[in-house]
Amino acid sequence: MEKYKILNLRDNPFKDVTPSLSSDSELEWAGLMELKQKIEKVYKDTITTYTRQIVLNWGAWGGGKTFASIYFTSKNFSTDNIKVTQVYIQPPKEGSQSTIDFFKSIIDGISFSEIHKRIKIVIEEIGSEKLFALINNRIRSEEFANAIIKIGDDDPEIVSLMHTYIYTGLTKTELKKVGLPRALQSDKDRVKFLTGIIMCFISNQRETKARFILWIDEMEELIYFSQKNYRAFSQMLRDFSDLLNEGFTLFLNFNLTEPEESTIEMLLGSALWSRINKKIRFKELDEAMGLQYVKDLLEAQKINQRTYFTDAIIKQILETIPKSEMTPREVNKRFSSFLDYCIDKRIKNISTSSVNEYIESLSEDDLL
């Protein structure tokens, strides 16, 4: 934005905006290199091995979990030999419909049109019989294996009916028309059907192995479910990850702090909890981490090499944030506030005294 040019910045590097996959701008990773390397290691293991991975990302609110999920999901990790498909979703908001909404969220995350296109490609490459065998060997359901293959049909009417079959269900007459004995009726049905669809993404390209990575953000929403509902959701998630036990990586993001790890175990259930391969803690920033985080964000938006922010100035502003609240979100809020203060006061040369004046302008609530 034009107003930030006074500070040699193209735009505000500290926008407190939740990133989105629909954004046209490329996300900049700032600081937190150890955290980034841990997630990159998971991706490397995903591509170089074919074993299932379940990863727990957890920590305080504003620690960067949503940013990390959008950042990595927006990257293309496919190689010449391995195609990587990634999906980002959030958990359902209504507990009573959580398992059905979870099923539909993943379909939406991939998109029905992409599913149709992929199944059609796999049929062309290996044939319907081999695809049927591949799916049925995994999910042990001939009816759902046949139903999945019908999504890749050449007949637009059949494809349209299969779209309805997934989202709202078909009448008996419509089921007869597509040659299917029954609708998707239970959570076990939906787990099998979803697994079969994803099998088309991880075993395609003339039967070479591909990968499927699923991020589920804001899993702490399960706290607001009844016991019956969060148990049903975690059971479905466990059954899904057990059936899809190859070429699959699942990231679970929880906004909970250290003493609440037992809460995560309760929400997931002991069976799914025991299947977690790796736990990545999104910790509060220390001074060195905060300094590097701010410097990286400023560097990404600088117009030229001139800088208005020395290390001493950055540290002085960071000191206004309580150590227990030193997260990327809180750092963004404080520095965004300081930039607006400088622009409002037409401060061109940032100094210790200008930072002190800014601190004095803050209310006691701001400094808590």
Could you tell me how far the N terminus lies from the C terminus, measured between alpha carbons in angstroms?
A: 30 Å
SS content category: alpha/beta
How many separate helices? 17
Give the strand order of the largest sheet, numbering strands 1, 2, ... along the chain: 2-5-6-1-7
**Oligomerization category of the chains in this entry:** single chain
Could you describe the largest sheet, including whether it forms a barrel?
A: 5 strands, parallel
> Proportion of β residues?
5-15%
Report the average pLDDT across residues: 89
Radius of gyration: 24 Å
Shape: elongated
Strand segment tally: 7
Annotated CATH architecture of the largest domain? 3-Layer(aba) Sandwich
CATH superfamily of the largest domain: P-loop containing nucleotide triphosphate hydrolases
For this structure, what is the CATH class of the largest domain? Answer: Alpha Beta
Overall number of domains = 2
List low-confidence stretches.
Answer: none
Percent of residues in helices comes to 40-55%
What do we call the CATH topology of the largest domain?
Rossmann fold
Helix-strand topology string: HEHEHHHHHHHEEEHEHHEHHHHH
